[in-house]
Structures are given as C-alpha cells and as structure tokens.
Automatic annotation (TrEMBL):
Native organism taxonomy: Bacteria, Pseudomonadati, Pseudomonadota, Gammaproteobacteria, Enterobacterales
Entry keyword annotation includes DNA-binding: yes
Keywords carried by this UniProt record: DNA-binding, Transcription, Transcription regulation
UniProt-recorded name of the protein: LysR substrate-binding domain-containing protein
Pfam families, A to Z: HTH_1, LysR_substrate
GO molecular function, one term: sequence-specific DNA binding
GO biological process: DNA-templated transcription
Organism the protein comes from: Dryocola boscaweniae
Cross-referenced InterPro entries: LysR-type_TF_proteobact-type, LysR_HTH_N, LysR_subst-bd, WH-like_DNA-bd_sf, WH_DNA-bd_sf
Gene3D superfamilies linked: Periplasmic binding protein-like II, Winged helix-like DNA-binding domain superfamily/Winged helix DNA-binding domain
Amino acid sequence: MAGKLQLPPLQVLVVFEAAARHGNFTAAGNELGLTQPAVSQRIQMLENLLNGPLFERRHRGVQLTESGAALYQIVRASLMEISEQLERTRHQRSTLRIDTDMGFASYWLLPRMNALQALIPGVEVQVSTSPNDYNFRDSNAHLAIYFGNGNWPGTQAQRLFPEDVVPVCNHKIISRLGDNSPPSELLNYPLLKLPETRPQRWLTWDDWFRAQGVPQQHHADSRTYNAYSLVIQAAVEGQGIALGWRPLVAAFLESKQLFVCGPEVRTERGYYLLSSGGKPASLQQEKVIAWLLNEAWNFHHQPYLLPEYK
C-alpha cells in the first residue's frame, strides 16, 4: 500500500500558484479574496516547509527562484488537471448499470426500457449482457437480473419469475399437432435447444419429457443453438419446437407468432433481481428495484399474456 502523501495544505498550493502566475502577492490576494499579508503568510509557510525561498521579493512584485519555477510548473499542471477533471465530472451524466443475460434483455427488459428511463430522468441506463453465470464480485453493475437458484454470495436476491417452461411452436406445427396431443407427439418434430451445461443451469428437453412420463430416448433431429434468440427465431420460422420460458416468450404468444403445444413444468429456479448485500441502495436504485418488482407482479397477474395448453 502506498504511504501517506507528504503535501502542504491544498490552499497553500493554490495561493502559491496564483502568486507565481501574477508575479504579485496583492494581485493574487485580489483573485482569491485574501489580503496581501495573508498571501505572504502562506507563501512563507510553504518556504519554511521546503527550507528555501520560492520568490525573490522586489519593489514592484516578486519573481520565482529556480526552485520556485520548477515547483510552479508541477503545481500549475496538477491544479489544471484537477480542475478539468472536476469539470468533466460535474457535467457527466449519472449512470445506472443493469447486468443480465441476452434472452432476458431482448425479450423482457428491452420492451420496457422507455418506462424504465422515464422513471429516472437524467440518468443513463446501461444494460450489459453475458451468457455466463453471474458473479457479483466481478461486476460493476448496480443491479443484475440473472437466472439461477437464488444463491449468489454477497448479494440480496429477490425472485422476479419462477422457471415456468412450456413447449412452443409456430402455427403450422400447432395445426398438425392439434389440441391435447400427447407429449410423445413432440418427438416427431425437431427439438430446438441450447447447449447443455455442467452443472445444469436450466430445464432441458430430457427434464420436460421426464416430467410428462415419456421414456427418455435419443432424438436424432434435435438442433442446438448457442443463443436463446436463435432458438426462438427457429421456432417462429417453423424449424421445430422450442422450450419457452414464460417471461421471455409471452409477447410471441400474445402476437400468435408462437403457440403453447404441451404442459407447463415449473422448477425451483427462476430469474432473480440482485443487488449488493453489503451497501444500501441509492434512491435511483430503490426506484428501479420497486419498479422491476411491480412489473413482475403485473406480469404474473395478466393471464391473457400466458395462454395455457389445451
């Protein structure tokens, strides 16, 4: 760890810079709202600390000594840099960063961004996505929304959505399947999926068929995509049947781009709202947290967005 800086009071350096720039203690005092004796006193304090003169006192003003001139260059540059940084900070917009995954950002958060931005005017909302599991210690986010079991050390986790999963397909496939087709019928179509993870992070097709009592078996026509947006796009285009996580596919179901084609399965996992467990939330963060929780509650209580399997 770096040692304590050996510096005189900042005001002394400010007075020295003004006196050196003007070449006159009285002019420096007029600029800073100090008397000439007060300026002289502070310069004397700095000279005592340095054990040497910084100015040659003359009848009509002062002139920097060699050591005074060298110090002036450093002090002037440093104070200018501080001043410029303060000015940049003063005009810099406040920011609020939310980390999440691409699927949630694309299908749930992005359609609500205008409402979120209106909640905190003047604050730049930044959304950052990652396909990896969340690690709060490695993130600079103020808030995060991630999928898992609710156990992220160092965070306060509040569940927004449980893991409710239904098979979904486009109108052509649902018209062939018909109403109340047995789950085993889905094996006659390509199954669209994400790559498997170890440990398992979300529901898989094997999990879904097991929950329906359908014997596990290899499905040769499965198609794997490395992003959930590709899985959903393939389903919309009729390339097969996908697993749909309720909050992510609700808009597709409402617009009838996709249809529920099998029973729902719920697990103990879900999407969680994460905030730091070690420090209080700012007023802006509290507003966003309350808004997100309310939006999730409204979603749960709008059944027309969640067509059931019939």
